[in-house]
Automatic annotation (TrEMBL):
Belongs to the bacterial solute-binding protein 8 family. GO terms for cellular component: outer membrane-bounded periplasmic space. InterPro entries: ABC_transptr_periplasmic_BD, Bact_iron-sidero_bind. This is Putative iron(3+)-hydroxamate-binding protein FhuD. Residues 54-315 form the Fe/B12 periplasmic-binding domain. GO terms for biological process: iron coordination entity transport. Residues 1-24 form the signal peptide. Pfam families: Peripla_BP_2 (PF01497). It comes from the Bacteria. Keywords: Ion transport, Iron, Iron transport, Signal, Transport. The keyword Signal applies. Its main location: other. It is found in: Cell envelope.
Amino acid sequence: MTISIAFRCCILLGACLMANSALATTAASQTNPANEAAPSASAPPPLAKKAPQRIAVLDWTIAETMAAMEIFPAAIAEKNSYQVWSQSPAMPASTLDLGMRAQPNPDRLIRLAPDLILASQDYAFVKGLLERIGPTTLLDVYTPGQDIYENLRALAMRIGDITGHADRAARYIAQTDKALETISHELEPHRGQPVAIIQFIDARNVRIYGKPSLFSTALEKIGITNAWTAAVNQWGFQSADLTHLAALPKDTTLFIIKPYPADLPGKLQDNVIWQALPAVRNNRIILADPIWTLGGLSTVLRFAQTVRDGLQEQDANAGSNAAFRFPGYQQ
């Protein structure tokens, strides 16, 4: 999150908090006159700390991890978009939408009166303001230079501890580890096979994912080689044109992450470079549904399943000629 985004959050949160504080002060003066003595009472014994029930979440990776452990947030940011990109686990209808992740709606947060607000370290600039609405904890999600999978396992354990469900976190991690190991065994015939993961920007340019990235992490876990070995940015991808794809190993399978521009199929049909790619000529193009590139363990597993299903279907159709080389081509 940039400083400008954080500044907008500060302005919005600050304005709503000031208005809310003014209303609270007025109400207090009406119900508690200054000359009314407060009743004396001995302090009650401290109560055992309860696990938070009404949790507001501003980060999708945290929200996905909670949902996977069946700990559903009371509210998340950009709920509708989350349902498109993270998909599973889905949020229940009772989970409220807090507006944009970069600019959450402070009025909705105030009305929710959360027991706890969970966010990533990107919200450090506005933590002080968030804490005026409710207890706030910032979690490490994607830490540069650290192993992504271990980060996500640690995140699950931390959420389990915070919510009082450490047992669910341990079970979730164990189930994910086992599922990935199973997929790795299922893909034994493809051990070391090169795969490239791309998203189209337009008909000439793509984002291609390398290490470190969630996609590359998933490939490592199931014994598949990432064909892209060049440098990537802090988000795990590099912008490249189609000529870079021509430099990949000739037996590379291309996984294309949806969505892509509506006019892409027609333009690729007439693109000489695309048509000359070995992956295109040999029908090794696989489309994947939208996937949140900064997701949790569930997203790692979902992409691993996508790769397995795609490669196994490719095996089943080996030797057959494709009716077209990209969905939408005119035959």
